[in-house]
């Protein structure tokens, strides 16, 4: 079912990209295949805790990469309470351990996940949005 939803999303976005190309705004970013893929990923619902773990890792890695940093060695734990899902994980980023916390409701779209990032030893944390979904 998810793969059908994903394919329908890609088809709709491709059609809208083609129609937008006709009335092209010179300030608009071009829609590439990777951008279409990211836009569709953002619309997918998160149905399981392990799915949130995967999307949390992808979103936080994309955030670090958008800042020119290399993230590696992702490890995380996940759990749920009622219809809320939680992830607490860590990345090694430029020889520092960065903590990541994500949470969302069951069925919420990837673009709506809540993400907090902070240095494990400095204790700072800040809320961030998924850079793939902008």
Walkthrough of the structure:
By secondary structure, the chain is α+β, with helices and mostly antiparallel strands. The chain has helices at residues 2-22, 33-43, 49-66; strands at 71-81, 84-93, 96-105, 114-119, 126-128. Strands 1-2-3-4-5 form a 5-stranded antiparallel beta sheet, covered by helices on one side. Helix 1 (2-22) packs across helix 2. The relative contact order is 0.16. The model is unreliable at 17-31 (pLDDT under 50).
In short:
The protein has 134 residues and is of the alpha+beta class.
Beginning-to-end CA distance, first to last residue: 25 Å
Radius of gyration: 17 Å
Number of strands: 5
Low-confidence stretches: 17-31
Name its key features.
single chain, 134 residues, alpha+beta, 3 helices, globular
Sequence-ordered SSE layout with sheet pairings:
Layout: H1 2-22, H2 33-43, H3 49-66, E1 71-81, E2 84-93, E3 96-105, E4 114-119, E5 126-128
Antiparallel strand pairs: 1-2, 2-3, 3-4, 4-5
């Amino acid at each position: 079912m998810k793969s059908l939803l994903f394919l329908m999303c890609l088809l709709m976005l491709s059609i809208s990209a083609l129609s937008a190309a006709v009335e092209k705004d010179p300030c608009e970013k071009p829609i590439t295949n990777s951008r279409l893929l990211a836009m569709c990923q953002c619309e997918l619902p998160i149905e399981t805790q392990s799915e949130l773990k995967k999307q949390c890792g992808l979103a936080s890695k994309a955030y670090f990469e958008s800042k020119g940093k290399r993230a590696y060695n992702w490890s995380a734990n996940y759990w749920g309470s009622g219809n809320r899902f939680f992830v607490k994980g860590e990345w090694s980023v430029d020889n520092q351990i960065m903590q990541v916390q994500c949470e969302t409701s069951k069925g919420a779209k990837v673009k709506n996940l809540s993400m907090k990032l902070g240095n494990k030893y400095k204790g700072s944390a800040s809320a961030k949005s998924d850079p793939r979904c902008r």
